[in-house]
Protein backbone atom coordinates (compact mmCIF):
# COMPACT_ATOMS: atom_id res chain seq x y z
CA UNK A 1 0.00 0.00 0.00
CA UNK A 2 2.82 2.39 0.91
CA UNK A 3 4.61 1.70 -2.38
CA UNK A 4 1.36 2.43 -4.21
CA UNK A 5 0.96 5.75 -2.37
CA UNK A 6 4.58 6.70 -3.02
CA UNK A 7 4.19 5.79 -6.69
CA UNK A 8 1.06 7.92 -7.02
CA UNK A 9 2.66 10.79 -5.13
CA UNK A 10 5.81 10.62 -7.30
CA UNK A 11 3.81 10.59 -10.53
CA UNK A 12 1.29 13.28 -9.60
CA UNK A 13 3.85 15.60 -8.00
CA UNK A 14 6.24 15.18 -10.93
CA UNK A 15 3.52 16.07 -13.44
CA UNK A 16 2.38 18.99 -11.28
CA UNK A 17 5.94 20.33 -10.97
CA UNK A 18 6.54 19.80 -14.70
CA UNK A 19 3.40 21.70 -15.69
CA UNK A 20 4.12 24.45 -13.15
CA UNK A 21 7.75 24.81 -14.21
CA UNK A 22 6.82 24.94 -17.92
CA UNK A 23 4.10 27.50 -17.18
CA UNK A 24 6.42 29.66 -15.10
CA UNK A 25 9.18 29.31 -17.69
CA UNK A 26 6.89 30.48 -20.47
CA UNK A 27 5.52 33.30 -18.34
CA UNK A 28 8.93 34.54 -17.21
CA UNK A 29 10.34 34.10 -20.71
CA UNK A 30 7.53 36.31 -22.00
CA UNK A 31 8.35 38.96 -19.42
CA UNK A 32 12.03 38.79 -20.33
CA UNK A 33 11.19 39.07 -24.02
CA UNK A 34 8.99 42.10 -23.38
CA UNK A 35 11.71 43.74 -21.29
CA UNK A 36 14.36 43.04 -23.94
CA UNK A 37 12.10 44.48 -26.63
CA UNK A 38 11.65 47.66 -24.59
CA UNK A 39 15.40 47.95 -24.14
CA UNK A 40 16.02 47.37 -27.84
CA UNK A 41 13.42 49.98 -28.72
CA UNK A 42 15.23 52.62 -26.64
CA UNK A 43 18.67 51.55 -27.91
CA UNK A 44 17.41 51.66 -31.50
CA UNK A 45 15.88 55.10 -31.06
CA UNK A 46 19.03 56.56 -29.60
CA UNK A 47 21.24 54.76 -32.13
CA UNK A 48 19.35 55.88 -35.22
CA UNK A 49 18.77 59.40 -33.93
CA UNK A 50 22.48 59.84 -33.32
CA UNK A 51 23.41 58.20 -36.61
CA UNK A 52 21.25 59.95 -39.20
CA UNK A 53 19.10 62.69 -37.73
CA UNK A 54 21.27 65.47 -39.16
CA UNK A 55 20.99 63.88 -42.63
CA UNK A 56 17.18 63.65 -42.71
CA UNK A 57 15.06 66.38 -44.26
CA UNK A 58 11.29 66.24 -44.03
CA UNK A 59 10.83 66.45 -47.75
CA UNK A 60 11.11 64.25 -50.81
CA UNK A 61 14.77 63.33 -51.09
CA UNK A 62 16.90 62.88 -54.18
CA UNK A 63 18.22 59.54 -55.38
CA UNK A 64 21.73 60.56 -54.36
CA UNK A 65 20.60 61.49 -50.87
CA UNK A 66 18.65 58.22 -50.70
CA UNK A 67 21.85 56.25 -51.40
CA UNK A 68 23.76 58.22 -48.75
CA UNK A 69 21.13 57.45 -46.12
CA UNK A 70 21.15 53.79 -47.09
CA UNK A 71 24.92 53.65 -46.57
CA UNK A 72 24.58 55.39 -43.19
CA UNK A 73 22.11 52.81 -41.95
CA UNK A 74 24.54 50.03 -42.83
CA UNK A 75 27.36 51.58 -40.78
CA UNK A 76 28.08 51.15 -37.09
CA UNK A 77 28.09 48.09 -34.86
CA UNK A 78 24.38 47.45 -35.42
CA UNK A 79 24.25 48.27 -39.11
CA UNK A 80 24.69 44.70 -40.33
CA UNK A 81 21.62 43.66 -38.30
CA UNK A 82 19.30 46.19 -39.97
CA UNK A 83 17.08 44.59 -42.63
CA UNK A 84 15.08 47.64 -43.64
CA UNK A 85 14.22 51.24 -42.73
CA UNK A 86 11.31 53.61 -43.28
CA UNK A 87 11.21 57.23 -42.22
CA UNK A 88 7.79 58.86 -41.83
CA UNK A 89 6.77 62.46 -41.44
CA UNK A 90 4.04 63.51 -39.04
CA UNK A 91 1.39 63.28 -41.77
CA UNK A 92 2.04 59.61 -42.48
CA UNK A 93 4.10 60.17 -45.62
CA UNK A 94 7.16 57.99 -46.24
CA UNK A 95 10.16 60.23 -46.88
CA UNK A 96 12.69 57.38 -46.99
CA UNK A 97 12.47 53.60 -47.51
CA UNK A 98 14.62 50.74 -48.79
CA UNK A 99 11.77 50.21 -51.24
CA UNK A 100 11.98 53.38 -53.35
CA UNK A 101 8.65 52.59 -55.01
CA UNK A 102 6.78 53.67 -51.85
CA UNK A 103 8.94 56.68 -51.04
CA UNK A 104 6.81 59.81 -51.10
CA UNK A 105 3.54 57.94 -50.64
CA UNK A 106 1.17 58.60 -47.75
CA UNK A 107 -0.49 55.85 -45.75
CA UNK A 108 -2.94 55.69 -42.79
CA UNK A 109 -1.15 55.91 -39.47
CA UNK A 110 -0.87 52.53 -37.69
CA UNK A 111 -1.19 52.28 -33.90
CA UNK A 112 2.57 51.79 -33.41
CA UNK A 113 3.33 54.68 -35.76
CA UNK A 114 0.97 56.93 -33.79
CA UNK A 115 2.79 55.96 -30.58
CA UNK A 116 6.16 56.79 -32.13
CA UNK A 117 4.87 60.15 -33.38
CA UNK A 118 3.67 60.87 -29.83
CA UNK A 119 7.19 60.30 -28.49
CA UNK A 120 7.05 56.62 -27.46
CA UNK A 121 9.46 53.89 -28.53
CA UNK A 122 7.76 50.62 -29.50
CA UNK A 123 9.23 47.20 -30.34
CA UNK A 124 7.71 43.88 -31.41
CA UNK A 125 8.13 40.81 -33.61
CA UNK A 126 6.12 40.42 -36.81
CA UNK A 127 5.99 38.38 -40.00
CA UNK A 128 8.16 39.59 -42.89
CA UNK A 129 6.61 42.41 -44.85
CA UNK A 130 6.93 43.76 -48.37
CA UNK A 131 10.07 45.69 -49.23
CA UNK A 132 12.34 44.10 -46.65
CA UNK A 133 15.67 42.46 -47.25
CA UNK A 134 17.01 39.57 -45.23
CA UNK A 135 16.81 36.48 -47.37
CA UNK A 136 14.63 33.75 -45.96
CA UNK A 137 13.87 35.29 -42.56
CA UNK A 138 10.31 34.38 -41.56
CA UNK A 139 9.94 37.10 -38.93
CA UNK A 140 11.71 40.29 -38.01
CA UNK A 141 12.16 42.59 -35.04
CA UNK A 142 10.18 45.76 -35.70
CA UNK A 143 11.04 49.02 -33.88
CA UNK A 144 9.28 52.39 -34.05
CA UNK A 145 11.17 55.41 -32.65
CA UNK A 146 10.37 59.13 -32.78
CA UNK A 147 12.52 61.34 -35.03
CA UNK A 148 13.35 64.54 -33.16
CA UNK A 149 14.91 67.84 -34.03
CA UNK A 150 17.89 69.23 -32.19
CA UNK A 151 15.45 71.15 -29.96
CA UNK A 152 13.52 67.94 -29.24
CA UNK A 153 10.51 68.58 -31.45
CA UNK A 154 9.07 65.47 -33.12
CA UNK A 155 9.51 65.69 -36.90
CA UNK A 156 8.43 62.15 -37.74
CA UNK A 157 9.25 58.56 -36.90
CA UNK A 158 11.71 55.81 -37.77
CA UNK A 159 10.38 52.35 -38.64
CA UNK A 160 13.33 49.96 -38.47
CA UNK A 161 13.47 46.21 -39.06
CA UNK A 162 16.19 44.17 -37.37
CA UNK A 163 17.31 40.59 -37.78
CA UNK A 164 15.33 38.66 -35.11
CA UNK A 165 18.57 36.92 -34.11
CA UNK A 166 19.40 40.14 -32.29
CA UNK A 167 16.48 39.49 -29.93
CA UNK A 168 17.44 35.84 -29.45
CA UNK A 169 21.03 36.79 -28.65
CA UNK A 170 19.94 39.43 -26.16
CA UNK A 171 17.45 37.14 -24.38
CA UNK A 172 19.09 33.71 -24.67
CA UNK A 173 21.32 34.04 -21.60
CA UNK A 174 18.44 35.29 -19.51
CA UNK A 175 16.23 32.43 -20.76
CA UNK A 176 18.95 29.91 -19.95
CA UNK A 177 19.57 31.29 -16.45
CA UNK A 178 15.84 31.44 -15.62
CA UNK A 179 15.24 27.87 -16.80
CA UNK A 180 18.24 26.54 -14.87
CA UNK A 181 17.06 28.28 -11.69
CA UNK A 182 13.49 27.02 -12.16
CA UNK A 183 14.56 23.45 -12.81
CA UNK A 184 16.98 23.46 -9.88
CA UNK A 185 14.40 25.00 -7.54
CA UNK A 186 11.69 22.53 -8.49
CA UNK A 187 14.03 19.55 -8.25
CA UNK A 188 15.08 20.59 -4.74
CA UNK A 189 11.46 21.22 -3.74
CA UNK A 190 10.40 17.86 -5.20
CA UNK A 191 13.13 16.02 -3.29
CA UNK A 192 12.22 17.77 -0.02
CA UNK A 193 8.51 17.01 -0.44
CA UNK A 194 9.25 13.41 -1.47
CA UNK A 195 11.42 12.82 1.59
CA UNK A 196 8.79 14.40 3.85
CA UNK A 197 6.00 12.31 2.31
CA UNK A 198 8.10 9.14 2.53
CA UNK A 199 8.88 9.82 6.20
CA UNK A 200 5.19 10.43 6.94
CA UNK A 201 4.27 7.30 4.99
CA UNK A 202 6.76 5.21 6.98
CA UNK A 203 5.36 6.56 10.25
CA UNK A 204 1.79 5.83 9.21
CA UNK A 205 2.76 2.32 8.13
CA UNK A 206 4.45 1.60 11.47
CA UNK A 207 1.49 2.93 13.42
CA UNK A 208 -0.88 0.96 11.21
CA UNK A 209 1.12 -2.23 11.79
CA UNK A 210 1.07 -1.71 15.57
CA UNK A 211 -2.65 -1.00 15.54
CA UNK A 212 -3.29 -4.01 13.30
CA UNK A 213 -1.37 -6.23 15.72
CA UNK A 214 -3.40 -4.83 18.58
CA UNK A 215 -6.64 -5.43 16.70
CA UNK A 216 -5.64 -9.01 15.84
CA UNK A 217 -4.89 -9.70 19.49
CA UNK A 218 -8.26 -8.31 20.53
CA UNK A 219 -10.04 -10.24 17.79
CA UNK A 220 -8.38 -13.45 18.99
CA UNK A 221 -9.57 -13.07 22.59
CA UNK A 222 -12.88 -14.47 23.76
CA UNK A 223 -14.59 -14.45 20.37
CA UNK A 224 -17.68 -16.06 21.90
CA UNK A 225 -18.10 -13.07 24.26
CA UNK A 226 -17.53 -10.39 21.64
CA UNK A 227 -20.35 -7.84 21.72
CA UNK A 228 -21.18 -4.33 20.64
CA UNK A 229 -19.53 -2.80 23.68
CA UNK A 230 -16.24 -4.54 22.97
CA UNK A 231 -16.40 -3.07 19.47
CA UNK A 232 -16.85 0.33 21.08
CA UNK A 233 -13.79 -0.30 23.23
CA UNK A 234 -11.79 -1.08 20.09
CA UNK A 235 -12.95 2.18 18.59
CA UNK A 236 -11.78 3.97 21.73
CA UNK A 237 -8.39 2.26 21.42
CA UNK A 238 -8.14 3.43 17.81
CA UNK A 239 -9.06 6.95 18.91
CA UNK A 240 -6.45 6.78 21.67
CA UNK A 241 -3.80 5.69 19.17
CA UNK A 242 -4.66 8.70 17.01
CA UNK A 243 -4.31 10.88 20.11
CA UNK A 244 -1.14 9.23 21.46
CA UNK A 245 0.68 7.29 18.69
CA UNK A 246 2.83 5.49 21.26
CA UNK A 247 -0.09 3.61 22.89
CA UNK A 248 -0.83 0.78 20.42
CA UNK A 249 2.74 -0.54 20.08
CA UNK A 250 3.32 -0.06 23.80
CA UNK A 251 0.26 -2.15 24.75
CA UNK A 252 1.35 -5.03 22.51
CA UNK A 253 4.88 -5.04 23.95
CA UNK A 254 3.60 -4.90 27.54
CA UNK A 255 1.36 -7.88 26.74
CA UNK A 256 4.38 -9.83 25.44
CA UNK A 257 6.43 -9.05 28.56
CA UNK A 258 3.55 -9.84 30.89
CA UNK A 259 2.89 -13.27 29.35
CA UNK A 260 6.55 -14.28 29.71
CA UNK A 261 6.58 -13.15 33.35
CA UNK A 262 3.31 -15.02 33.98
CA UNK A 263 4.75 -18.22 32.57
CA UNK A 264 7.78 -17.98 34.87
CA UNK A 265 5.40 -17.49 37.81
CA UNK A 266 3.36 -20.52 36.77
CA UNK A 267 0.05 -18.85 35.83
CA UNK A 268 -2.53 -21.13 34.23
CA UNK A 269 -3.57 -20.69 30.62
CA UNK A 270 -6.80 -18.96 31.69
CA UNK A 271 -4.91 -16.51 33.90
CA UNK A 272 -2.37 -15.89 31.13
CA UNK A 273 -5.24 -15.09 28.77
CA UNK A 274 -6.73 -12.73 31.35
CA UNK A 275 -3.32 -11.13 31.81
CA UNK A 276 -2.79 -10.68 28.05
CA UNK A 277 -6.21 -9.12 27.51
CA UNK A 278 -5.73 -6.77 30.48
CA UNK A 279 -2.34 -5.69 29.12
CA UNK A 280 -3.81 -4.88 25.73
CA UNK A 281 -6.46 -2.68 27.41
CA UNK A 282 -4.35 -1.30 30.27
CA UNK A 283 -3.92 2.28 28.93
CA UNK A 284 -7.41 2.76 27.50
CA UNK A 285 -8.22 5.21 30.32
CA UNK A 286 -5.80 7.70 28.74
CA UNK A 287 -8.56 8.49 26.25
CA UNK A 288 -9.86 10.81 28.98
CA UNK A 289 -6.54 12.60 29.55
CA UNK A 290 -5.72 15.84 27.64
CA UNK A 291 -3.26 15.30 24.79
CA UNK A 292 -0.96 18.11 25.95
CA UNK A 293 -0.40 16.20 29.19
CA UNK A 294 0.16 12.82 27.51
CA UNK A 295 2.78 14.23 25.12
CA UNK A 296 4.35 16.85 27.39
CA UNK A 297 8.17 16.87 27.27
CA UNK A 298 9.68 16.54 30.73
CA UNK A 299 8.10 15.56 34.02
CA UNK A 300 4.57 16.52 34.91
CA UNK A 301 3.80 19.22 37.47
CA UNK A 302 1.60 18.27 40.46
CA UNK A 303 -1.64 19.39 38.80
CA UNK A 304 -0.86 17.49 35.61
CA UNK A 305 0.14 14.41 37.58
CA UNK A 306 -3.22 14.45 39.35
CA UNK A 307 -4.87 14.35 35.92
CA UNK A 308 -2.73 11.45 34.69
CA UNK A 309 -3.52 9.51 37.90
CA UNK A 310 -7.14 9.32 36.78
CA UNK A 311 -6.48 7.03 33.82
CA UNK A 312 -6.51 3.68 35.70
CA UNK A 313 -9.91 4.57 37.18
CA UNK A 314 -11.26 5.73 33.80
CA UNK A 315 -9.99 2.56 32.12
CA UNK A 316 -11.55 0.35 34.83
CA UNK A 317 -14.90 2.09 34.36
CA UNK A 318 -14.82 1.60 30.59
CA UNK A 319 -13.90 -2.09 30.77
CA UNK A 320 -16.06 -2.77 33.83
CA UNK A 321 -19.22 -1.98 31.88
CA UNK A 322 -18.85 -5.43 30.25
CA UNK A 323 -20.11 -8.16 32.59
CA UNK A 324 -17.49 -10.68 31.46
CA UNK A 325 -14.61 -8.24 32.08
CA UNK A 326 -14.96 -7.54 35.78
CA UNK A 327 -11.56 -9.09 36.54
CA UNK A 328 -9.95 -7.13 33.71
CA UNK A 329 -11.41 -3.95 35.24
CA UNK A 330 -9.85 -4.75 38.63
CA UNK A 331 -6.43 -5.44 37.10
CA UNK A 332 -6.52 -2.18 35.10
CA UNK A 333 -7.54 -0.16 38.16
CA UNK A 334 -4.54 -1.27 40.21
CA UNK A 335 -1.71 -1.54 37.65
CA UNK A 336 -0.21 1.76 38.95
CA UNK A 337 -0.29 0.73 42.63
CA UNK A 338 3.19 0.51 44.21
CA UNK A 339 4.41 -2.43 46.23
CA UNK A 340 5.22 -0.12 49.16
CA UNK A 341 1.69 1.37 49.16
CA UNK A 342 2.56 4.80 47.68
CA UNK A 343 0.90 4.20 44.30
CA UNK A 344 -2.52 5.17 42.94
CA UNK A 345 -5.54 5.22 42.83
CA UNK A 346 -6.19 3.32 46.10
CA UNK A 347 -2.77 3.10 47.78
CA UNK A 348 -2.81 -0.72 47.97
CA UNK A 349 0.41 -2.44 49.08
CA UNK A 350 2.08 -5.86 48.82
CA UNK A 351 -0.08 -8.88 48.09
CA UNK A 352 -3.29 -6.83 48.38
CA UNK A 353 -2.52 -5.69 44.84
CA UNK A 354 -3.78 -8.26 42.29
CA UNK A 355 -0.88 -10.38 40.98
CA UNK A 356 -1.72 -9.53 37.37
CA UNK A 357 -1.59 -5.80 38.23
CA UNK A 358 1.85 -6.27 39.78
CA UNK A 359 3.00 -8.09 36.64
CA UNK A 360 1.66 -5.28 34.44
CA UNK A 361 3.49 -2.73 36.62
CA UNK A 362 6.86 -4.40 35.91
CA UNK A 363 6.17 -4.92 32.18
CA UNK A 364 4.82 -1.37 31.82
CA UNK A 365 7.82 0.16 33.61
CA UNK A 366 10.36 -1.77 31.55
CA UNK A 367 8.78 -0.87 28.22
CA UNK A 368 8.39 2.77 29.27
CA UNK A 369 12.07 3.22 30.13
CA UNK A 370 13.33 1.34 27.04
CA UNK A 371 11.19 3.33 24.60
CA UNK A 372 11.56 6.85 23.26
CA UNK A 373 8.89 9.16 24.67
CA UNK A 374 8.46 12.93 24.52
CA UNK A 375 9.52 13.25 28.17
CA UNK A 376 12.58 10.95 28.31
CA UNK A 377 15.17 9.13 26.22
CA UNK A 378 15.15 5.34 25.88
CA UNK A 379 17.57 3.26 28.01
CA UNK A 380 19.46 0.17 26.82
CA UNK A 381 18.50 -3.23 28.34
CA UNK A 382 21.42 -3.35 30.76
CA UNK A 383 20.57 0.00 32.31
CA UNK A 384 16.85 -0.85 32.34
CA UNK A 385 17.52 -4.05 34.30
CA UNK A 386 19.48 -2.03 36.84
CA UNK A 387 16.52 0.34 37.20
CA UNK A 388 14.19 -2.61 37.87
CA UNK A 389 16.54 -3.88 40.60
CA UNK A 390 16.58 -0.39 42.17
CA UNK A 391 12.77 -0.36 42.23
CA UNK A 392 12.56 -3.89 43.64
CA UNK A 393 10.58 -3.86 46.91
CA UNK A 394 9.53 -0.19 46.65
CA UNK A 395 7.70 0.49 43.41
CA UNK A 396 7.72 -3.10 42.15
CA UNK A 397 7.01 -6.59 43.56
CA UNK A 398 10.39 -8.32 44.19
CA UNK A 399 9.02 -11.71 43.08
CA UNK A 400 7.72 -10.30 39.80
CA UNK A 401 10.97 -8.40 39.14
CA UNK A 402 12.97 -11.59 39.69
CA UNK A 403 10.69 -13.51 37.32
CA UNK A 404 11.10 -10.83 34.68
CA UNK A 405 14.89 -10.79 34.99
CA UNK A 406 14.86 -14.60 34.88
CA UNK A 407 12.86 -14.52 31.65
CA UNK A 408 15.34 -12.05 30.16
CA UNK A 409 18.29 -14.19 31.25
CA UNK A 410 16.79 -17.27 29.63
CA UNK A 411 16.37 -15.48 26.34
CA UNK A 412 19.91 -14.10 26.55
CA UNK A 413 21.31 -17.56 27.29
CA UNK A 414 19.70 -18.96 24.15
CA UNK A 415 20.91 -16.03 22.05
CA UNK A 416 17.37 -14.73 21.44
CA UNK A 417 16.08 -11.18 21.76
CA UNK A 418 13.79 -10.80 24.73
CA UNK A 419 10.99 -9.69 22.42
CA UNK A 420 10.94 -8.82 18.77
CA UNK A 421 8.86 -5.73 19.50
CA UNK A 422 11.28 -3.90 21.83
CA UNK A 423 12.71 -0.71 20.34
CA UNK A 424 15.80 0.68 22.06
CA UNK A 425 17.20 4.16 21.87
CA UNK A 426 20.81 5.15 22.14
CA UNK A 427 20.61 7.10 25.39
CA UNK A 428 23.44 6.72 27.88
CA UNK A 429 22.90 5.91 31.54
CA UNK A 430 22.11 8.67 33.98
CA UNK A 431 19.38 9.51 36.43
CA UNK A 432 16.86 6.75 36.85
CA UNK A 433 13.94 7.70 34.57
CA UNK A 434 11.08 5.88 36.32
CA UNK A 435 8.07 7.40 34.47
CA UNK A 436 5.66 9.47 36.53
CA UNK A 437 2.76 8.68 34.22
What would your notes on this structure say?
This protein has 437 residues and is an alpha+beta fold. It has two domains: 2-175, PAS domain (Beta-Lactamase, 2-Layer Sandwich), CATH 3.30.450; 221-413, Hypothetical protein af1432, CATH 1.10.3210.10. The protein has helices at 2-52, 63-73, 111-117, 165-220, 228-243, 247-264, 269-281, 291-294, 302-308, 311-320, 326-333, 355-369, 381-391, 398-413; strands spanning 82-89, 94-97, 122-127, 139-148, 154-163. Helix 6 (247-264) runs antiparallel to helix 7 (269-281), helix 6 packs across helix 12 (355-369) and helix 7 crosses helix 11. The longest helix is centred in the middle third of the chain and has 56 residues, at 165-220. The radius of gyration is 43 Å and the shape is rod-shaped. Residues 130-136 and 419-434 have low confidence and may be disordered.
Describe the structure concisely.
By secondary structure, the protein is α+β, with helices and mostly antiparallel strands. Helix content is 56%, strand content 9%. The protein folds into 2 domains: 2-175, 2-Layer Sandwich (Beta-Lactamase), CATH 3.30.450; 221-413, Hypothetical protein af1432, CATH 1.10.3210.10.
Compile the SSE list and pairings.
Elements: H1 2-52, H2 63-73, E1 82-89, E2 94-97, H3 111-117, E3 122-127, E4 139-148, E5 154-163, H4 165-220, H5 228-243, H6 247-264, H7 269-281, H8 291-294, H9 302-308, H10 311-320, H11 326-333, H12 355-369, H13 381-391, H14 398-413
Antiparallel strand pairs: 1-2, 1-5, 3-4, 4-5
Helix pairs in contact: 1-4, 4-6, 6-7, 6-12, 6-14, 7-11, 10-11
Amino acid sequence: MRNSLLHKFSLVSFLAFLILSVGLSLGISGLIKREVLDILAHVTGEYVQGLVHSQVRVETISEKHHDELSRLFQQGVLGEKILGVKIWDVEGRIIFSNDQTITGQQFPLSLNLKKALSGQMVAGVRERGVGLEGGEKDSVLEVYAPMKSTQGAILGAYEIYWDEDLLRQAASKAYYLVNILLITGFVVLYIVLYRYFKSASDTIEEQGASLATLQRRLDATRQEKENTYLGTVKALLAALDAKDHYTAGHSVRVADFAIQIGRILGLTDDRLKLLEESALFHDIGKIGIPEQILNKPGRLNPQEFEEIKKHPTIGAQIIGAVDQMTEHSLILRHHHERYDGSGYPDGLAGDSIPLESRILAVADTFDAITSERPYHRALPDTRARAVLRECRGTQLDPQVVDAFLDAMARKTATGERFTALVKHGAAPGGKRPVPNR
